[in-house]
Amino acid sequence: MVLPAHLRTLARVDGEVRLPVEGQVTQRLVLDALENRYPMLRGTIRDQVTGRRRAFVRFFACERDLSHEEPDAPLPHAVATGTEPYLIVGAMAGG
């Protein structure tokens, strides 16, 4: 998993983050594992009450935007096996 720089700083990690996920690998399970390992990230990527993705956060994998996929939809096989990263990207706004 690749996090944006500000979340890497908050979690005090360098580079990619590897997380063990049991069973079918979904966005929900990956984000649950991330927040369990790095509790300081809770509420930064998803709303803590609704579980919905924050407005200025996007998810990508295998050159696809997964931001609007269902949280329990399986992630691509390449992500599940660790050959491709799951990317969390901070969207930019402004003019």
Please give a quick description of this structure:
By secondary structure, this protein is of the alpha+beta class.
Q: Can you give the mean pLDDT?
A: 93
Q: Report strand %.
A: 5-15%
Helical content, roughly? 10-25%
Radius of gyration: 13 Å
Q: Helix/strand-derived class?
A: alpha+beta
Quote the distance from N terminus to C terminus.
30 Å
Oligomer: single chain
Order of helices and strands: HHEEHE
Q: What is the count of helical runs?
A: 3
Largest sheet: 3 strands, antiparallel
Number of strands: 3
Walk me through what this model shows.
The chain is an alpha+beta fold. The chain has three helices and three strands. A three-stranded antiparallel sheet has the order 2-1-3, with no helix packed on it. Strand 1 (57-61) and strand 2 form a beta hairpin. The longest helix is centred in the middle third of the chain and has 11 residues, at 27-37. The mean pLDDT is 93.
Topology overview:
Layout: H1 5-11, H2 27-37, E1 57-61, E2 64-65, H3 77-80, E3 86-90
Antiparallel strand pairs: 1-2, 1-3
Q: What brief labels describe this structure?
A:
3 strands, 23% helix, 13% strand
